Amino acid sequence: MAKRRRECWLLIRVAAQNIERRPMRAVLLGVAVMLGVGVGFATFVAGWSLRAGIATSLSRMGADLVVVPRETLVNITSSLLTVQPTDASLDASMAETLSAIPGVARVAPQRIVQAMIDGHVANLIAFDPASDFSILPWLGEHQPEPLNKDDVIAGNRVPVHVGTPLQICGKFLIVRGRLEQTGVGPFDQSYFLSFDTLATINAFNYVGGSQTGEKAPAPANAVNGAAAPPAETNAEADNCKTEWPLNRVSAYLLQLSPGARVEDVKFSIAQLPAVRIVESNAVLTSSRQALSPLFLGIIVFTAFQGMALMIVVSLLFSAIVQERYREVGLLKAMGARGNQIMTIILAESAIITGLGGLAGLAFGTTLLLLFARSLGFYFGLLGIPFSWPPLAVLQMSAVASVMFSAFVGLVGAFLPAWRVRGLDPYALIQTQER
């Protein structure tokens, strides 16, 4: 094992010495790899960031289709975000039926009820955080913890602060976050919570707690460590509406799959009884559906760029190997094996392209910083946030870029190295002399 390790180290040293013989050629090849890897890395990261930003921006436009009870009055601007206050509702089991319709990618149910909140009547909008795509994208100031059963989100025009306790129907909840201003009055003046939280409030008022005359417990994580004041027996709860059926939904917000036809989906939904379908702007729907093909196009572009680099490396090392036929023939005549010759050629190529990949990583990072300072800032003014991908994605893409550059060198030089590996020493020397 030690002998083989020394042999590999000796072959790598020979490859490094070959690079020193023609430094300018090695530098030019490294620069070509640097440009390719740097542009590819920057394109991937920028594409990821813009895709996420555009997706967030388009998600703020609401749904492609909204399914509501037939008798519900719908304002098209508001319905894309949520439904107007209404007593009409749909069965919660309809979510499975809608999800099974071809062309429907996501189904987000919402339930809107009126409740007594800190002494005044306001709208509560219940949603499922796991399937939501029209509320959480608007989340502005918020605490890092995920939404739980003791949390509520406030609309932009609601006069409360993040982290403060809020009394809803006699039960205390913590304001976990606030939405940014949407420009839609009912949406900005509402409170948002999960279906589980709505069920907790419902049970608190109609199963136990306030109905029995007990005081609502103060939350342990109130602001500044101080316990919030307890509920005043039934005063808040008695002003709430009657018991809310938990198996009812006010509206279903739908997002369509890429390539889905709105007319086909609407026709399938129209077969359901007692429903009304509201369609959003067709431009927004087509723009949202084009996001995945756009990101796929970026990946395809990067792949073709890598193939072009492989061809360049292969052509260059074909010329390099042909130039060294006499040397290779003498090495083989002195006892060098074909695999050793291949190792020298492949190591030389991997060293050049690997160093070029490291330089390309620095070059790509510079391009990304320039992009964030220029076009990224411009996109931010248009309402499309430019945010860096997660650290894990950046690390994986950086490592993949360097590994890919070395892989390009190995693949590009493999064919010339394999071809010279099988030639006889006499033929190599004779070919060089010609």
Quick take:
It contains 15 helices and 12 strands.
Overview of the molecule:
The structure is a single chain. The chain is an alpha+beta fold. The protein has two domains: 9-58 and 291-433, no CATH class; 65-280, no CATH class. Helices cover 53% and strands 15% of the residues. The protein is built from 15 helices and twelve strands. The chain has helices at residues 2-21, 23-59, 76-79, 94-99, 185-188, 195-206, 235-238, 262-269, 282-289, 291-323, 325-333, 338-373, 375-381, 391-421, 425-433, and strands at 65-69, 90-91, 104-117, 120-127, 139-142, 151-154, 165-168, 171-179, 191-194, 248-249, 251-256, 275-279. The strands form two sheets. Strands 1, 3, 4, 5, 6, 7, 8, 9, 11 and 12 form a ten-stranded mixed β-sheet that branches. Strands 2-10 form a two-stranded antiparallel sheet. Helix 11 runs antiparallel to helix 15 (425-433). The protein is elongated.
